[in-house]
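Retro notes - structure team

What went well: the batch runner handled both jobs without manual restarts.
What didn't: labels got mixed up in the shared folder, which is why I'm recording both outputs here explicitly, each with its sequence directly above its tokens.

Job 1
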Amino acid sequence: MMKHIVANRESNDMSVSYQQRILAAANKIFIENGYRLADMRSIAKEAGIAVGTIYNYYPNKAVLYQAILDQQWEEFDRHINQIVTDLASSTREKLQHVTEHLFGFVARHMSMWREIIDDPQRDDFQLLDEGHKAQQKAHNQLKEHLRRVFSEHKPEPSWIVERHILAYMAAVTHIGMLFPNETEQNIKYIMGMIDNMPRLST
């Protein structure tokens, strides 16, 4: 009986070890290549295991990508939610903190960030798999956070707030990619852009 328990424990430990290796390798490949270009063979090679071993835990790339994106995004989303719901901070301070965190995320996860901001509903004929559903969830959560804080900063009709959000996301993406080592200047520029966004209420 005791030998059976020990054997099961060792088997479970090995299973966890394999999953950790798979997730670490997949995280690296997804960050480097993005969802569309990543493939299970590359992930298996990076993890140093057979492709079949991955399929024992993750039936397809979409499910694996969902696990990675959920893992990376959940922690980031918690930070952003804490910022936008902080009653002690001014609206501009919230926007600055959000911008700082976004530039950090872009620098660490450029390919993943591209997947998130690229509207997952752009192709109405595409049946969303689990990977795209995870992308859609992150995309919607980010837009909702930004919608909330932009609405506080510049109370405007929804159509202009949506354009502020899209302009902001595009600017953070391109500036973060082109000037990855100039974070302070990047934040200063984005905050200046926010302060000078057109307002209908003026």
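Job 2
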Amino acid sequence: MGAVVLIALVLIVLILAGGVGAGLLLRKRQFGKYRELVGQGAGWRQVPANPQLWQRVAALRWFAGRRGLQDFFHMAGEHRGVPFEVVQYRRPPGVGERVYTAAAVVYVPRPVPGPGLHLAHRDSWTPLGQDVEVPTGHPDFDRSFLVTSQNPDFARAVMQPGLVEGLLRDGRMRSRVVEFAPEHLVVFATVVATKDAVLPMLDMLVDIRENVPWQTLAR
């Protein structure tokens, strides 16, 4: 009987050790992907976490709910002359869940602070709070995309024909949500922050930034 108990204890220890080892291996692989991402640009670097940053973005507050978000990996750099930050967030498991949910987020500064706006494919988003849908007047775009804001005049001023036409042809928007937060342009997706996921998001966000008539919005 004693031998059976001993064998059972040994098996439990081995299972636990295997679980810990698998977790450490997964973490090592994750950070290997982060290092690969950091290595994609000159001067790109890992920086300390900023636990308050996500709280300034309405879409991320919605995504976090009451669980909050962990700033798991945070990097910064410059792309095409525009400073940026990339964050890998993890949302803790909810009731009935066992794993964290990953979200990759790219931030670039707004040249002009101002009202909010959300932009996404219709199957990826729904209006938040007091946001209202703002049609652009482009039938094909309005069938595929949802533009929402508490300030329709601002949204119409942003969604100029050149930007609308470009986004309509842009496959990088699939399953992504773009937000004009008070101080940043932000794009987020529930993915791991690998170079294959983040680089198109970063490039797209800079493209959007370059196609917004900021001087007009500043008046």
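One thing worth noting from job 2: The chain is about 40% helix and 25% strand.
We'll revisit the folder naming next retro.
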